[in-house]
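Q: May I have one protein plus its fold?
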Amino acid sequence: MLIRAPSRFSRSLLRRVRGQSLVEFALALPLLVLLVAMAADIGRAFTAYIELGNMAREGARYGAISPATAVDSAGIRNAAIGEGATIFGMTPTIQSTAGTETRNSQSYMYVTVTARLDFEPFVQFPPIPATIPIKREVTMMVLR
């Protein structure tokens, strides 16, 4: 079996193919980095959404203990913030309201806790806003 050395033509063709691959990679790399950054932002936003739900639930749980705690907005806020003080360095706002409702001629008291956060994504260009408002609201009946 006879093996021939690569000719001058095949060496230049091989260099050209390698150069073409490098150019294609250089053109595709920014798009790939953008897609990875956007996926990370979606993950961060979903994590913030879950954490806001946990904070609102914890605040509502504290407010549902008794009628006295239902109107203690500072205690509700402290209970919610105790669940997670910041989300990715951003501090959410916690608001609470208490009220009464009558159903089937029976009256009961409830507490509603709202947790809000203006989420700031890493990737900011025209289709994506600079801040995305995220809100979670939890309502619980107050124990008597």
Q: What stands out?
A: DSSP finds three helices and three strands in the chain. Strands lie at 93-103, 106-119, 132-141.
